[in-house]
Amino acid sequence: MGRVTTADQPSGPTLVVGLANPGPDYVGTRHNIGWDILQELASRARPMPASFSTHKKTNCEIAQTRLADTPVVLARPRSYMNLSGGPVAAVAKYFSVAPTDVIVIHDEIDIDFGQVRLKRGGGEGGHNGLRSVSSSLGTRDYIRVRAGVGRPPGRMAVADFVLKRFSKLEQPDVPFLVQDAADAVELLLKHGLDTAQNQVHSA
Fold it and tell me: Which residues of 119-151 are buried (b: 16+ CB within 10 A; e: fewer)?
């Protein structure tokens, strides 16, 4: 059982996934905040920043490194968001990572912009990426790092809202959201879910 569930040293790596859509059209959108956070984590890797490479067997871009003195595999599915599950399940199988040692970072419209929340399991809240991951892993029992992107204004459709870039008013605060979510992942790796939740949710 990995560090995300206990303070004991994990026997294998923890898989940290950032959900996003591929391609330049989606860069900077709310839906791709998971990838932005994954990039921030890669920059924090030691002894040197991690770089991603295509892993054809799993259809992911991955980096094997260490964070918070813990071995991790950082992964970004190369599929579109609603097909994320296949690549996530493939990379978990390839590196022998149990679903309980998978951390999925994603955008969350049910949390105020700029807030970060952590949970294990539960529903997907209409998030197609999470629904795909749960289906492919065969369980909902993985950890989610939920980066709040706020709710769509007025009658704007959720699908349209999450595919838009952050507003000019929000943009200065996006780096803080990215940093806070990356901090939360490092807390998970170092101290486990309960302690991380206590610290993150009381901030």
Answer: eeeeebeebbbbbbbbebbeebebbbbbbbbbe
82 is in an annotated binding site: yes
| 89-136 residue pLDDT tens | 999 999 999 999 999 999 999 999 999 999 999 999 889 999 999 999
127 noted as active-site residue: no
Any domain includes 53: yes
> What's the pTM?
0.93
How many separate domains does the chain show?
A: 1
Q: Which of 31, 55, 106, 127 is catalytic?
A: 31
94 labelled binding-site residue: no
Q: Is 26 annotated as a binding residue?
A: yes
From 17, 11, 27, 70, select the one nearest 46 (Cα to Cα): 70
> Domain range spanning residue 127?
14-198
